[in-house]
Amino acid sequence: MSLQQFIEQLDDLAGSARQAFMAAADSEQLESARIEFTGAKNGQFKLIQKQLGSIERGDKPLAGKRLNEVKQEIQNAFDEAAERLAGGQVDGERDPKVDATLPGPVQRIGRLHPITQTINELKDIMGRLGFTPAEGPEIEDDWHNFKALNIPDIHPARDPLDNFYLSTARHSAPSLGDNPLLMRTQTSTVQIRVMENRQPPIRIISLGRVYRPDTADATHFPMFHQMEGLMIDEGVNLSDLKTVLKLFATSYLGDEVPIRIRPSFFPFTEPSVEADYYWNGKWVEFGGAGVVDPNVLSAVGYDPDKVTGFAFGLGVERLCMIRHQITDIRYLYTNDVRFLQQF
Ligand code: DAH
Residue range 119-134: average pLDDT? Predict the structure, then answer.
């Protein structure tokens, strides 16, 4: 065989090996191409190498040199292909029809629960009105949940059927002088905790869970969230409350929203009101509010002749449901991703 023929064969081999390695879609295909071209027994390279013996003596050094070069080229092409397959497209699963330059499928990542989103938004709106968040425990005592809020010992709100009492007090009404523990039924507890620890002026909100032994239905759930608001200073009155509620409703619902207040009763406010806003053609209840009762101010050691204030308590689920037209509170707590991923 002439030197030229020998070199041509080698060059052809290098070209086909490179092509075969590049076309391999997975490591199995790459391996069979490797065996075909560089297999130790019958690989094509080996067959050509065997022909070296028929090359003229004087041409042998050149032929040998080229043989080594091609061997190295094939090895490099193989290494490149192996590296490409290891770069995420291996495992025999790569679809040759995939266009790697296109964006990948949309990844489903988690998101915040609609109630958490609502809470964050409420904090944001009230923050702009100067109200800072405050926290209190979900397991409370009688003093913070009832007594300091001017709810007398014999008040029906303390009924064991309406509260989750803890430990020994579970099956009996708390007796006078007792300070039993319970799951808080309202975030008004945080008003007391804040006032016990700070002096006026006070402007806080508190967002958190409350618990009541209600049977779950479209509008009730044994656990829900409230936003409590409290502002105490010299000369704070009912019209300040109305302004804050109006600004809040307008910010949250994004429109100029009419609001109204109706007379009501809560032991911890005097006067007490129920606030409604006008939304989608009807009056919707917001929650309770009022001017903080002087007995509450005295209970925390404030002087009711010096400072006054207002308070309000709104249901977070209700605000979230109205905004998103959710018709059943249970959807919020069933953890069905088909529901949750809409938010
Ligand atoms: N705590 C009341 C409830 O759970 C709501 C409420 C009413 C809170 C009037 C207040 C208030 O701060 O002033 O039903």
Answer: 98
